[in-house]
Design brief:
globular, 268 residues, 21% helix, 5 helices
């Protein structure tokens, strides 16, 4: 467990799907992903003057290389706060763990006096879709039961609900019903957030807020039947977790910069 200072509100920044490569000029569908990440982080510096933690929710690397994770480390050292990482379908868990050795990055539980942030691994190695192993569901259940007094934010890479995007909805969490059975047992989950879908959304499921976040590189077109790239710019999500359990959040995107995207590519 990692303990954060009990600031009110607790100010978080979520970045996701950075898709970094070993070479600095590595790209995804024509977009240089380290460059686009740097643009997003510069926007974060301009807009968010107090950050208590970064949540980096998967597909940190496109090629799974150790150097890709070192790129991310170097970029985040410009901020004086911890960062917590999740694996996505493109990530190499061994190289990710090697880069994280001696750091807080892979801590699955972060707590303050008011909140707990639960980081779940939805990766199925070698597959694009996600699944929450029984051990992950047990950890979630036990953690929620252990501290019912704490408001809870649950994070993972893959989406647990339909995004109204036909091709994307085949590659979400395959056992999402098991996840919701655990969450529905407890009254302290305030929100879940994820990456993977390269688009932002904000909806409710009962009393639980459901949040997806844009990529720091390319975006996927909403409500598309087949793979399609959107023209929206890279971005991030900010979250202010209030002591009463409410959440203020929004998405911010880079403006005034042209990013090259190869719209002819079908699939990623």
């Amino acid at each position: 467990m990692f303990s954060l200072k009990n600031r009110r509100p607790l100010r978080l920044v979520q970045i996701t799907d950075t898709h970094l490569n070993e070479p600095e000029d590595g790209h995804l569908l024509g977009m240089q992903t380290l460059h686009s990440l740097r643009c997003v982080l510069e926007l974060v510096r301009e807009e968010r003057h107090q950050i208590d933690a970064f949540l980096v929710t998967g597909d940190l690397s496109q090629d799974g290389s150790l150097e890709a994770y070192h790129h991310l480390q170097r970029e985040l050292t410009h901020f004086s706060c911890p960062s917590f990482w999740l694996a996505g379908n493109h990530d190499d868990p061994d190289n990710m763990a090697q880069a994280a050795d001696g750091n807080e990055y892979l801590q699955p539980l972060i707590r303050t006096d008011d909140w707990q942030i639960i980081m779940l691994d939805s990766q199925v190695v070698g597959k694009v879709y996600g699944r929450l192993a029984e051990s992950q569901l047990d950890f979630l259940d036990q953690t929620l039961a252990q501290r019912p007094d704490l408001h809870s934010l649950v994070c993972f890479h893959h989406h647990p609900v339909a995004m109204d995007c036909k091709w994307i909805d085949t590659i979400g969490i395959k056992n999402a019903d098991d996840l919701w059975r655990v969450i529905d047992k407890h009254s302290n989950v305030r929100a879940v957030c994820w990456g993977h879908v390269h688009q932002d959304s904000d909806q409710m499921r009962g009393q639980v807020r459901l949040l997806s976040t844009p990529s720091t590189c390319i975006q996927f077109e909403p409500q598309s039947e087949d793979f399609a790239i959107d023209s929206l710019a890279p971005g991030y999500r900010w979250l202010d977790l209030n002591a009463d359990g409410s959440i203020d959040t929004g998405v911010s995107r880079v403006e005034g910069i042209e990013f090259e995207v190869d719209y002819s590519v079908k699939g990623y």
